Amino acid sequence: MGLLFSKILSLPEDQLGISYKISKFNDDQLRNIFKKYDANNDNKLSREELKKAFEFLGSITPGFRADRGLHHADANKDGYVNEEEMDELVKYAERVGFTVIA
C-alpha cells in the first residue's frame, strides 16, 4: 500500500510510529507505467494518456506535466510520444523527481 508523490517529501514518523520509505522509480518501472496508459494500444501516448499516467504517479499538476513531457520528448512534434521518444519522457519524469512512498 503506497502513496505516490511527484517530489521527495521529508516525512517525520507519524503519531502511530509508522515510518515511510521513499525511493525513486527506475527506468523500466516508469516506462511500464507510461505504457500502461496507452489506452488505445497504438504504441504512442497522447496528451490525455500522459495526463492520466502523471495523475497515477501522483502529480498535483498532471496536465502541466503532460504538456512538459510532450515538450521534452516529442521530437517529431506530432503531439504524441512514440516508442522511439519514450526514453526522453522517462528522463523527464526522473529529472522532475517522481518517487514512490511505501
TrEMBL record:
Molecular-function annotations in GO: calcium ion binding
EF-hand domain sequence ranges: 25-60
Keyword hit for Ion transport: no
UniProt-listed InterPro entries: EF-hand-dom_pair, EF_Hand_1_Ca_BS, EF_hand_dom
Superkingdom of the source species: Eukaryota
Calcium found in the keyword field: yes
A Pfam family matched in the record: EF-hand_7
Keywords of the record: Calcium
Protein name: EF-hand domain-containing protein
